[in-house]
Design goal:
By secondary structure, the protein is mostly helical. It contains five helices and three strands, in the order αααββαβα. The chain has a single domain, classed as Helix Hairpins (Orthogonal Bundle). Helix 3 packs across helix 4. About 20% of the residues are buried.
Amino acid sequence: MINLKNILLITFSLPALGIWFSWYFEKWDYMILCLLLTVPILIIQSYMKESVIKRSIDFCFHLSIYIPLIIYAFARLYEEKGLILNGEVVHSFDSSLYFSIVTWTTLGYGDFQATEAVRLWAATEAMFGYIFMALLIASFMSLLVHEKKAGKN
């Protein structure tokens, strides 16, 4: 799992990065940036384990925690900046959470639209949704294949 060295690395490097970029990023922008930068560190750490089962379980565990956090952070960003519904800007958290989930899963119903302020963030969320969900499914499949091989022996 997470060792002290990685916790210290994450704890001290991300706030420093946030201070460096604070002239450009706002509160939820910074939160999303921190979450998206933390996941590769955890992925690398997960894949340093010897056992395929430990690696896959660790990776699935990390993603199952981080995916809802990232979706929530994007929802808060959309709530703050607003979404367009029927030509009007809406700042509702329920609508923002719905839009965030729909964007993450790339369903794209089309009832809500991103404002100019969050259009690039919405595209980023959709891209990371593709990548993270593919990685999560690949980890689950790795567990299933390993279980099937272990059952034959």
